Amino acid sequence: MKKILIVGATSAIATACARLWAEQGSEFFLVGRNEEKLQQTAADLRSRGAKVVNLHCMDSTNFDAHPEMLNKCLQALRQIDIALIAHGTLPEQKACEEYADLALQEFANNCTSVIALLTILANQLEVQRCGTLAVISSVAGDRGRPSNYLYGAAKAAISTFCEGLRARLFKVGVHVMDIKPGFVETPMTRGLPLPAALVVKPEKVAKCVIKAVDRNVATLYAPRFWSLIMLIIRCIPQPVFKRLNL
């Protein structure tokens, strides 16, 4: 039975992943900001076969709350086999260009709060000498595009942090996975002018994540075709790239 911590547990991708793990009889410690949504998620997971579901309300940008959350998680689960960090927001780029305080808040939502969590979780898994840290970043972090470079910068920082952390924890038997979804049909992307052919359901991403965790994949593009798309985008020369409206 897997013991799983999910931060941002009510997000669409996290919920889809949890449902698949629940079918395996996993035990969960769910963290989120909205208690009502957490309760709904917990009930859903129990109906799908989850053995035990523990809940904890926390704003991840409150760094001082992280140690208490981890302590309660360890009291409930005793050990963490998988930690999935899935919280985040999709900021409005134009607003972030105008208001520096908003830009910094969104960077905290999408980057520094994740790094803070990864730090204390990494130390715990290092003591355990086992487990997987899985983090949802984004293909947006592969290159700074004018349409979302604040969000992309946050995700790029996470991916770089994960790469170094992976090399550190590999020596003690702990795996770190960087998950890079493309366009996913979620409440966060609702209403955006996305190319329909490239938009997938959260369930499809979740299936990719579950398989990748079992295989200790380092960097997961979900779905896989995004690895080719982003390879092409990364190869566009800078003099050309800066003229594109991406």
Automatic annotation (TrEMBL):
InterPro entries: NAD(P)-bd_dom_sf (IPR036291), Sc_DH/Rdtase_CS (IPR020904), SDR_fam (IPR002347). It holds the Pfam family adh_short. The keyword rRNA-binding does not apply. PROSITE patterns: ADH_SHORT, PROKAR_LIPOPROTEIN. Keywords: Oxidoreductase. It comes from the Bacteria. GO terms for cellular component: membrane. GO terms for molecular function: oxidoreductase activity. Belongs to the short-chain dehydrogenases/reductases (SDR) family. This is SDR family oxidoreductase.
